[in-house]
Amino acid sequence: MTWPKDKRENLDAFYGRHLLAANGRPTSAWLSEHLKNFTAPYPLTLSWDLNAQVTKLYCHKLVGESLVNIFEKILAHYGNITEVRKARMHLYGGVYNYRPIKGSNRLSTHAWGASIDLDPERNPLGKAHDPNAGMMPIDVVEIFEAEGWKWGGKFQNRPDCMHFQAAT
Ligand SMILES: [Zn+2]
Asked: Beta strands 35-46 and 91-94: pairing type?
């Protein structure tokens, strides 16, 4: 899969330029045109509320199938949900979020529902990857990369190891 470059004009062209309501947020018409719920292949848990199960991935309709494939591959890689949980790959940090990149005025790819955060607690923004510290498993990084997604752990200016985006 070829995803757009992580630049405003490419993201607008590929994923759709936001139409904003008076409150400065995307209109419900824009959201229903571009985002859709996809069923997750295994139940996820909200990383900030471990009692909350997530069974739907609310993401851009152009990335949903790829994201479902990725979670199917993660499940197949670990073999079962118990092993997925041991690897903390059920800890969901969110997909769609209309917001700028932290410390910047550039819109995050989350604003198009084209990125996902996994296990944010062990993979905090700014912390360089240390595979021996229980951070993002490289096997999972490779699964995302095989679908053309970019891993935030390789961001030049500031690593973001929880983050994967369908934009290069
Ligand atoms: Zn993120």
From this structure: parallel
